[in-house]
């Protein structure tokens, strides 16, 4: 015998660019460039077990609502606001749907020139948010960033680790530390209910990550993870938990001795794979249980 397990469905990667015309400083346009995902769940067993689509709001309709809502909300809207509105729409308008998950990745654009309508795509990071709207459990918001590549050319050591018969790694008192930061911060339920200045929170979170990375002398990437997580909790009182994923972008000093050249921390091979992957969570002492927030 078999049975249906957990399931959800929706539209992935709905690409949407909203131009808030003249809404910026000196009448400049403001751009929100998004990759939106919707995922609905609830009383949907029939669709899998009998083929009845009576409760299946087409993913095509979900995609259409994404574009329509961007127009309806208008203006320079934070991705979190959009996620809460969109999720609430599906749960309140479709009786079988009890939970909606909305993800928004936001790509930044930097103004170019003075006319207010020219922009260059900002490649430094992607802003992220995942909103869950659940008919019973309420609304959760997890925001953050990904693809933020950072490097310290010194101020990092790695030594004192156990050595077994497979250990060849040389201890180092001075190495390059580089990573691509994925950070996600979970907002406190009461903050979500009261309303958050989402854009200000994002700016504060990004600054906390960058400033901590630059200011922290480390003996491991694990130590950097905890430092960044703590700094985010300090900077964002509305946040109760941070989850971080830090790939170790290894840089190997190239042996140039065969060519009669010394190499005193100058020429490195930028490793691609494999890479170390350091992951962890940092929580406020009073963080409530996450419930569905990370689903
Ligand atoms: O910061 C590090 N943490 C590790 O766990 C590890 N392991 C390794 O080989 N190099 C490193 N660097």
Automatic annotation (TrEMBL):
Gene3D superfamilies: Urate Oxidase. Keywords: Oxidoreductase, Purine metabolism. O2 binds at residue 248. The active site is at residues 11, 59, 250. Its EC number is 1.7.3.3. The keyword Oxidoreductase applies. It is an enzyme of class 1 (oxidoreductase). Pathway: Purine metabolism; urate degradation; (S)-allantoin from urate: step 1/3. NCBIfam families: urate_oxi. This is Uricase. One of its GO terms (biological process) is purine nucleobase metabolic process. Urate binds at residues 59-60, 158, 175, 222, 248. Belongs to the uricase family. Catalyzes the oxidation of uric acid to 5-hydroxyisourate, which is further processed to form (S)-allantoin. One of its GO terms (molecular function) is urate oxidase activity. Pfam families: Uricase. InterPro entries: Uricase. It catalyses: urate + O2 + H2O = 5-hydroxyisourate + H2O2.
């Amino acid at each position: 015998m078999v049975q249906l397990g957990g399931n959800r469905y929706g539209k992935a990667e709905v690409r949407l660019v909203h131009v808030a015309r003249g809404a910026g400083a000196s009448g400049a346009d403001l751009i929100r460039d998004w990759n939106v995902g919707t995922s609905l769940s609830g009383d949907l067993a029939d669709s899998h077990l009998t083929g009845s689509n009576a409760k299946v709001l087409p993913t095509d309709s979900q995609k259409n609502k994404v574009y329509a809502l961007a127009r309806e909300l208008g203006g320079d809207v934070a991705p979190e606001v959009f996620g809460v509105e969109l999720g609430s729409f599906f749960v309140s308008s479709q009786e079988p749907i009890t939970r909606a998950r909305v993800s928004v990745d936001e790509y930044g654009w930097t103004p170019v020139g003075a006319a207010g309508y020219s922009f260059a795509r900002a490649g430094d990071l992607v802003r992220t948010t995942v909103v869950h709207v659940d008919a019973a459990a309420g609304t959760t918001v997890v925001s953050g960033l990904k693809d933020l590549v950072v490097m310290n050319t010194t101020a990092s050591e790695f030594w004192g680790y156990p050595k077994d018969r497979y250990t060849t790694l040389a201890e180092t008192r001075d190495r390059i530390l580089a990573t691509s930061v994925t950070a996600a911060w979970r907002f406190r339920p009461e903050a979500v209910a009261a309303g958050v200045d989402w854009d200000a929170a994002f700016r504060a979170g990004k600054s906390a990550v960058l400033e901590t990375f630059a200011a922290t002398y480390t003996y491991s990437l694990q130590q950097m993870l905890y430092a960044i997580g703590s700094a985010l909790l300090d900077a964002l009182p509305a946040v109760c938990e941070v989850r971080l994923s830090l790939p170790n972008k290894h840089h190997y000093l190239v042996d140039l001795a065969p060519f009669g050249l010394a190499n005193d921390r100058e020429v490195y091979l930028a490793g691609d794979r494999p890479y170390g992957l350091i992951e962890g969570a940092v929580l406020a002492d009073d963080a409530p249980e996450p419930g569905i927030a990370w689903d």
